[in-house]
Design goal:
Elements: E1 3-4, E2 22-25, E3 28-31, H1 36-48, H2 67-76, E4 82-86, E5 89-94, E6 97-98, E7 105-106, E8 112-116, H3 120-128, H4 133-140, E9 146-150, H5 151-157, H6 173-186, H7 193-206
Parallel strand pairs: 1-3
Antiparallel strand pairs: 2-3, 4-5, 6-7, 8-9
Length: 209
Amino acid sequence: MLACASSLVGAEPPEGLDFIGGYYEKGEYKCYAEPCFTIHKGTEAAAAKDRPFSPRDWQPRTRSCQKAYTQALATASTVDIRYAKKGDCVFVVEGEWLDPYTTEVITELGDIALDQLVSYREAHRYGGAYWSHAQRMELVSDSDNIVPVASMSKKARAGKSPTQWMPENKAYWCDYIVRREIIQRKYKLYLPREEREFQQEIKKLYCKY
């Protein structure tokens, strides 16, 4: 849930105030001025009209080898990886990863999590609320939408959209938005106007091409 901070007359604006009047405090996004309040009020109102989101809708019905997760870990590792076989499945058991959200180096699998660039909650709200199970599983198994990050990074993001959360590492902001847009186009997801405008502004400020 978005937190709101009341503006005090004569008070100094908070550090890191962005162009829509919001800022981060201890990992939580807060509104300080307009249009931040209006944007997030509209976002929450639109979400309320959707079919309720349930994480269970996005889980495979049967056990799988999670090949997309294995591929994402293998591709992102900065060193040679080691595999282990279990039954008919092959899993990554050793490697080293750089969390693009924070630049933290991760060497233990127990410290890594696989985040979705476009979260399942976002996909649900942007057009996937009435997808079939097969359509949902197509996104779930798309390695282009999976990024290995530190467990704490995934917890901090918690499936939030860019207007609510952006990676701590600003050098990754361009890639983060561009990769999200590729997924959004691929699955014909329709973003609210405020989200589209925010992504365009991030590209204008952080993409050097």
